[in-house]
Amino acid sequence: MKKSLFLLTLVGFLATQAYATPTKIRKTKAPKANLEQQLAKYISYPDALRPTQRAGVVVIQFRVNSDSELCQLEVFSQNEQINNALLRQLTGKKLAGYGSDASELHTVRLRFQPE
């Protein structure tokens, strides 16, 4: 009888824990699409791609400082002209809602379409 009562109590306890909601409030991050949209306002189609009229994808990494400005910007493409153009266009630009954690590294893929 004691084993049955103990087993029933244990099963009841485990069942309640399985459906319990966590009390810790999760900090939600801003969606990536918002980040990409903000970056798109600062970037124009690279001159290096104009003669070929090709689409292209470039990956960039950066941090956002406490003033919400882009810093430690790196551009990953094989074309040095594109890298320099994007560095000029983005260095020091501000992003709304991303200046809280300066240690966070953001990685974004930028897609270019011919005009």
UniProtKB/TrEMBL annotation:
The keyword Signal applies. Residues 1-20 form the signal peptide. Keywords: Signal. This is TonB C-terminal domain-containing protein. It comes from Spirosoma aureum.
